[in-house]
Amino acid sequence: MKASPLFASSRPSPKSSTRQHGSVDDPFAGERRMLRRLGFDDALIEPAETSARRNGTAIEDELLAAGAVAPEAYYRRLAFYLGLPFLASIDAGSVADRRKIDRLLASPSGLRLESGEGGATFAIIPRARDLADLHDRLSFRPAIRRAVVVTMPSSIRETVWQVGAQRRLANTIHRLMIWEPRFSARIVFWGKQGFLLGGGVATLLTGLVLFTAETLLVTHILFLMLYALSLIIRLAAVRSGHRRKAEPAAAGEDGPMPVYSVLIALYREANMIPQLVDNMKALNWPASRLDIKLVCEADDSATIAAIRAENLPPHFELVCVPPALPRTKPKALNYALSGARGSLLTIYDAEDRPHPDQLREAWRAFRKGPASLGCLQAPLIVDNIGQNWIAALFACEYSGLFRGILPFLARHRFPLPLGGTSNHFRTEVLRKCRAWDPYNVAEDADLGLRLHRLGYHCGVIGRPTLEEAPVSAGTWIPQRSRWIKGWLQTLLVALREPSRLFSELGTLGALVFLANGAGVILSSLLHPLLFVALFMTAATIVHPNYDPGPFHQLLSGIDIANILASYWVFMRLGLSRMEPQEARQMRADALYLPLYWLMLSFAAWKALAELYHAPFLWRKTAHRPSGTNDACSEEKSSGSKGQGEG
User: Fold this and answer.
1) Residue 530: helix, strand or coil by DSSP?
2) Span 165-208+248-363+417-429+450-458: which CATH code?
């Protein structure tokens, strides 16, 4: 909701030659003179002007972004010059939730405040370059002067977030379901899916009772085929090449850099805020072109207090999401997306330490890539490999996935199961796809598939984000069960209309998706049965009189080969993509691989059970600052964020 055109202003362009207070060549001349008149000296103005010319902003934007002046002190000074009252905070009760008011979240300019007596006041955000003209106009219009106050961009945004909270929340939760119900996981079993699944289980149980041997044999053969599918992608990735190197930084960027939005969903993360803020400040991107949103649940008072205690610069913004089910990360991200200012957007987690140049690499890749390039995935690298065997094997798994499998899939434009962080999007594409599904607990994999189904594709970049792996089974299993449950949701959504899936992805693309998704899940669920085959083979050696027959011996041999091949591919793919210093830290941790896979199977069965009784429950992974070696701290601070929980 904008104020009167009397107070409208626009951002200057460094290439503009529009007349500004007598200058036809220098678009910053008028702003520079006004800032001097307001009491700022050249020692502040000149470096800010240099940055403004480079970044395509205004001098005052750079002054505020650099922390040269506090926003409240700056806008108070502008209000004093205009002879207007200054309003540091706005009562949300004085603002009506009008149509298109959310535009002010991205571009705050002016806001109409109702007086309650039929009158209205306009809260405006004056710009230094327009201040002289605005002063002159107000001088000749005393009636308007009495109805105007000066405020700050953050005050308008904070008020608009409050005013439209419930309407925005409802839109956030239901947007995807209303737009295209077939893409939403809100209904777990769609149409005939529940009937077919129940019928399949009943048929299997009946077969086991009436035709036990035959049913087990058919199931065994089917399992071998599906297990083999999960190996094909990994074998292809092993043969596809070595580590992908990050592109060297360009000598100089061509033109101003775009505004880049960074969304960070936080829950019970008060201990992570100082580290997170330091990592975000380290990003090699102009602060005046950054839009960092720290997204919290409104009832997470500890995290909110920790953020407010940091006294953050203007390009940081706290967004509080009203409590409502489902309480998931994708719902929080969707809510914050309403106010994203950037044409490019990325998401991080609280513990992430992205490479400072990651945003620049993504920007260059988007500029070089076609319009259909909707998303880029940065690699996630575990840096606490040496802490214990769980962290080491987790790091090996991440290496194989983010530096092996995903680059292979991206190279051939196959559907990409995105990671839960360090995804970089064209914001316009993200909004067209209706962003994340608030009901899917693996919203990253779901969104990667949906992008492909809607005609876009995903790529990868080289500059990584550092993370710390879970170091205890009590933390690792809930996290992994959530991922697998989300993958099950994604598969159920994809297979609602199988023919349409094959039409949208192409036959090969659909088969690769199913092999990479269903094959991995089924292999996780049924992996313990391979050990049964191993024991049966051992029994034939220990007890010569036990003869299961040549066919069963052949199947048992294939089972053993599958186990060995799976372990070999896991280690080979992961280690071949690691840097030498990473691989050296693995030591003898590979010996724990069978136990790691049994943990994976337990997590898969746990996910299958939760899909029935708690499909939207979000198991929150507790984080800790990097370098913290107290493994028990994960357990002590762990919590769940999900259905019916806060």
Assistant:
1) helix
2) 3.90.550
pTM over 0.90: no
AA letter at 168: R
Environment class of 527 (CB within 10 Å of its CB; exposed 0-12, middle 13-18, buried 19+): buried
What is the pLDDT, as a whole number, of residue 547? 60
Q: Are 290 and 326 in contact (CB under 8 A)?
A: no
Average pLDDT over residues 143-169: 93
Dihedrals φ, ψ of 564, to 5°? Answer: -65, -40
**Nearest Cα to Cα of residue 529 among 210, 217, 209:** 217
Q: Hey, is 471 helix, strand or coil?
A: coil
CB atoms within 10 A of CB 609: 12
Amino acid 62 reads E
Task: Mention every residue, 6+ apart, whose C-beta is less than 8 A from residue 27.
Answer: 12, 13, 14, 16, 17, 18, 20
Residue type, position 519, single letter: G
Between 333 and 197, the more confident residue is 333
Least confident of 201-205, 532-536, 571-575: 532-536
CA distances from 208 to 42, 353, 470, 558 (A): 85, 51, 39, 23
Beta bridge partners of residue 121, listed in sequence order: 113
Q: Residue 342 in 3-state DSSP?
A: coil
* Pairwise CA distance, residues 215 & 332, whole Å: 46
Triad 198, 202, 207: Cα angle to 5°: 150
Give domain limits for the chain. Answer: 5-163, 165-208+248-363+417-429+450-458, 217-235+385-416+471-623
- Calpha distance 495→438 (Å, rounded): 19
Tokens encoding 268: 């019970």
Query: Which residue reads 């009937």 in tokens?
Result: 195
CB of 344 closer than 8 Å to CB of 431: no
Q: What does the block give as tokens for 205?
A: 């149980």
Q: Are strands 423-426 and 353-354 parallel, antiparallel or unpaired?
A: unpaired
CB neighbours (10 Å) of residue 535?
Answer: 10
